[in-house]
Write a structure and sequence with these properties.
Blueprint (H helix, E strand, L loop, with lengths): L5 E2 L11 H12 L11 H21 L7 E4 L2 H12 L5 E5 L4 H12 L4 E5 L9 H6 L5 E7 L11 H11 L2 E5 L18 E5 L11 E5 L37 H17 L1 H20 L4 E3 L11 E6 L4 H12 L1 E2 L1 E3 L4 H7 L6 E5 L6 H17 L2
Parallel strand pairs: 1-11, 3-4, 3-5, 5-6, 6-7
Antiparallel strand pairs: 2-8, 7-8, 9-10, 10-13, 12-13
The structure holds pyridoxal-5'-phosphate (PLP).
Pyridoxal-5'-phosphate binds next to α3.
Length: 386
């Protein structure tokens, strides 16, 4: 078989990006885009307007109360660290799901190791769904925070976040949701899902460049900033300005990244989230149907395609997942991800630890032809190499 480059690693970062995203980031750099909010000259003001326009667009797209509820960060990891380390205080207890990414597991581990917090991890009874009831059972009087990913980056399963949000509200505690795998591909309204804090990354479903993320903070939620410094505002004062977003946005922003992200958001708006979701689900259905015909393939999915984002984990009996990934790339030009996907507890929960799985993550720009080609490649590998 001829060897094209086929990209099935959109859960790690989406590619390609819309043309407008490339152009916006490049134009910003080439046109001498200046530091936003720092100087009074025209280019600095134009950069500031760009930041505001993207913040406004993101807030409207995600259902935030107002643009100031959206904070620019570096990525989802940065947003999650800001939320976890900014909210928790000594003695607090946290309940989190087994499907969290290392960007949740590791900050919790370090706080726990320092003796500052205690934690409880909740696992599925069966399959890959963590029930809101499991969070409820784990609550203690000192529980301050519930953390759940909107969708697993290993199985793709969408979690019952609205129920978890309701539980948090009933108990008067906080809910932090990780929307790294859902923003831009699944309908999401931060107020309706009941989350107090939501972490986003700009470079996956939101189709922006790497190096920019977002953190939603419900109005009134207070975080201790973990980074303080220049904001261009209240420069005469020693303390960090208390108003949002400056309180949490010290330092020069990734303005070319934000210019690209703004175009990613516009692309999603003009294409339509429903159209993006429908295309991805159709490709998933086609791929899953094809995988059923290949002997030795085990897919880690438990219910219907619409309960998932376009992330499909599978193994091929008798073959290490890393080896399969290597053959897919070397023999067929197919790029995917293998191993543990930075989510070791998720693999423990579904029984694939420590070997991991092969993960195909599809995006809006993938085609039926690419799916059919991958299925042929996998069928060949299943017969030739095992
Ligand atoms: C569920 C989940 N959370 C967090 C992250 C971290 O995202 P970033 O690399 O943008 O920090 C990822 C990335 O794969 C993810 O899948």
């Amino acid at each position: 078989m001829e060897k094209p480059a086929i990209y099935f690693d959109n859960a790690a970062t989406s590619w390609p990006k819309p043309e407008t995203v490339y152009r916006a980031a490049e134009n910003y750099l080439r046109s001498g885009g200046a530091n936003p909010g720092r100087s009074a000259h025209a280019r600095s003001l134009a950069s500031e307007r760009l930041l505001y326009a993207c913040r406004e667009r993101a807030a409207a797209f995600l259902g935030a109360e107002k643009p100031e509820c959206i904070i620019y960060t570096l990525n989802a990891t940065d947003s999650l660290n800001m939320a976890i380390k900014g909210l928790l205080r000594p003695g607090d207890h946290v309940v989190y799901s087994a499907f969290e990414h290392n960007s949740v597991l590791r900050p919790l581990f370090s706080l726990r190791q320092s003796g500052l917090i205690t934690t409880t991890m909740v696992t599925p009874i069966d399959g890959d769904l963590v029930e809101a009831e499991a969070f409820a059972r784990a609550l203690r009087s000192e529980t301050k925070l519930l953390i759940c990913t909107h969708a697993s980056n290993v199985t793709g399963r969408i979690m019952p976040v609205e129920k978890i949000g309701r539980l948090a509200s009933e108990k008067g505690i906080f809910f932090l949701m990780d929307a790294a795998q859902t923003a831009g591909v699944v309908p999401l309204n931060v107020q309706e899902c009941g989350a107090h804090l939501v972490a986003f990354t700009g470079h996956k479903g939101l189709l922006g460049p790497p190096g920019v993320g977002l953190l939603y903070l419900r109005e009134g939620v207070e975080l201790k900033p973990w980074r303080e410094g220049g904001t261009g505002s209240r420069s005469d004062e020693e303390q960090q300005p208390k108003f949002m977003p400056d309180y949490l946005e010290a330092g020069t922003m990734n303005t070319p990244g934000i210019a690209g992200l703004d175009e990613g958001l516009k692309f999603i708006a003009t294409t339509g989230l429903e159209a993006i979701r429908a295309h991805e689900l159709e490709l998933c259905g086609r791929f899953l149907k094809g995988l059923e015909q290949i002997k030795g393939v085990k897919v880690f999915r438990w219910t219907s395609v619409s309960d998932y984002v376009a992330v499909i984990s599978f193994t091929l009996e008798g073959m290490d997942s890393g080896e399969l990934g290597y053959i897919l790339e070397e023999g067929y030009g197919i790029l995917c991800r293998t191993g543990l996907h930075c989510a070791p507890q998720a693999h423990r929960a579904i029984g694939t630890f420590p070997a991991g799985t092969v993960r195909f993550s599809l995006g809006y720009f993938n085609t039926e032809g690419e799916i059919d080609y991958a299925l042929k490649a996998l069928a060949q590998i299943a017969t030739r190499f095992r």
